[in-house]
Amino acid sequence: MSGVQQLDVPEHDAGQRLDRWFKRLFPHVAHGKVEKLLRTGQIRVDGKRAKGNFRLEAGQSVRIPPLPDPEVVKAETSKRDRSRLFDMVIYEDRDLIAIDKPAGLAVQGGTNTHEHIDGMLPDGFRLVHRLDRDTSGVLLIAKSAQAAKWAGRAFQSRTAKKIYWGVTNGVPRPLSGEIAGYMAKGELDNRFGNIHEGKEVMMAVRHGTPKAKHARTLYEVVATAGAKAAFVAMMPLTGRTHQLRLHMQILGAPLAGDPKYMTDRQLPGGLDKCLHLHARSLTIPRDGQPDLSVTAPMPKHMKSAFELFGFSESEEQVDWDELL
């Protein structure tokens, strides 16, 4: 634990927010901890309390309270992250583990993303594929570079079989089949009063559009609740960003709770306000061994939706070969 420090603000740091300035100097201190230090007056500017958005001036003196050693924080964080990761494990062998990723937890880091699966992995472990932050379900992790290579080939060669379950706002038409087309990055518009206007999304585009990629999805409506909602099983034949989310929107029934791919139809009452998309199962071939097949249990928000609409997990008996 360090002692109390008094740091002067240099000329080149003038105008910076206090919380961001502090975090840049002491990145091992968690954001929540910084807020608490500010709230309790342990971080002060020229002897006075200050809020996180206070703009610093050159020459001001900032009181830095006693802080834990960075190496101790790193070790404690690593231990906590690994414990949390292994609480998610639903399958393990000498080469691979499969976890049931909860909705809301990112797979990899990015802007303003400090907690993610990749950051929890022990040394040498590697992600084999990805899931959106808001998608729950099966995520495969390799324990070595060699395991990542052979498992990754199943995704690259498209021999990995991924089944997703979703609850849609409305009923897709037609009720089953294949949806295919080109997609590329675009921006949200404000047709449905979406507060995320301007954020990047995927859009259906014509063949030949710059950076467009072809996407294919097999799907079947397993059950419906009138015209309000449907239980849909999906098998992506390609692995494009937001592929299933865009394809359900194109079919006229976007996934319930999706903040980016929407409709002007009101969301049925009683649903949790989160994305209703779950990576239900994953099957990959193994040389000289039976296929590896892993199934993730339904998350709480999906179970609630099934109960609300009277859907049953046992109803899903899709003949995917027939849809091909």
From TrEMBL:
Keywords: Isomerase, RNA-binding. Gene3D superfamilies: Pseudouridine synthase (3.30.2350.10), RNA-binding S4 domain (3.10.290.10). It holds the Pfam family PseudoU_synth_2. The keyword Transit peptide does not apply. Residues 16-77 form the RNA-binding S4 domain. One of its GO terms (biological process) is enzyme-directed rRNA pseudouridine synthesis. Coiled coil: none annotated. GO terms for molecular function: RNA binding; rRNA pseudouridine synthase activity. SMART domains: S4. The keyword Secreted does not apply. Belongs to the pseudouridine synthase RluA family. This is Pseudouridine synthase. It comes from Algimonas arctica.
